Amino acid sequence: MPFFRSSEVWVVEFTYEGRPRRWFKALPQGTDAPAAMRELLEELYGQHARLGEVRPATPQEELDYVQGRLPQNVLCPSGRAPRSASRPPGAGSV
Predict the structure, then answer these.
(1) Is 51 in contact with 14 (CB distance < 8 Å)?
(2) pLDDT tens column, 58-69
(3) How does DSSP classify residue 76?
């Protein structure tokens, strides 16, 4: 039985306010990834972001992405500490 993939994993390198960032994005097969990422960055960040390289993920990068083994962002947008940070009971509660 043939296996049909409906998406491809891409590595997106960009800068946000001059700081380097990297995303892994799964996009439908046949998508113009550079154009899609340029549009997404413009929508999300406006002039604060600059698109760098957009390339297909290597087989190892794709495997790591699918299995959730990529490095996690140490900054949490909710302001909460990372799951790995231990806190004393009651710390951080409101």
Answers:
(1) yes
(2) 999 999 988 888
(3) -
The string of pLDDT tens digits covering residues 5-62 is 799 999 999 999 999 999 999 999 999 999 999 999 999 999 999 999 999 999 999 9
d(CA 36, CA 27): 9
pTM, whole model, 2 decimals? 0.71
17 HSE (CA, 13 A, CB side): 2
Query: Nearest Cα to 56, choosing from 90, 88, 33?
Result: 33
Strand, coil or helix: 66:
helix
Helices (H) and strands (E) in the chain, counts: 2, 3
94 vs 73, 83, 90, 91, CA distance in Å? Answer: 24, 18, 9, 9
Structural contact between residues 13 and 20, judged by C-beta atoms closer than 8 angstroms:
yes
Strand (E) positions, 29-93? 49-56
